[in-house]
Amino acid sequence: MLSPKNTKHRKQHKGRIHGSAKGNSELSFGYYGLKALQPERITARQIEASRRAISRHLKRAGRLWIMIFPDVPVTGKPAEVRMGKGKGNIDRWVCRVKPGTIMFEVDGVDRELAKKAFDLASAKLPVKTSFIALDSY
Known about the structure:
The chain is of the alpha+beta class. The protein has helices at 44-58, 111-122; strands at residues 32-36, 40-43, 63-66, 72-76, 89-97, 102-107, 129-133.
């Protein structure tokens, strides 16, 4: 699963996801893409599940790019632990996704195959998504 090798700070505040995507809102590498329509935190497990769904449906044809990376640590305390005693340990890594962010890109496959693969991947993600292509701009 994806996680950073090292970070400047071990723990972070939760923060909020305001506004729309500043960058990464147009296709950079592939011909087809999966774009987020809502702000949400996407975990490394969800990214990996989506990647597996796409690559299995494409049968490793074409090329896949993952355009997001989980670099935000989320802490959690164990079950049945009393309040207080500080912030918990790092539980998982997430990526903050703003509306308009392209999460996955694919090239080298036909439109129907890419659309079906992105539909399967979208079912693994907690955000509403849209399928985009270079010819739809």
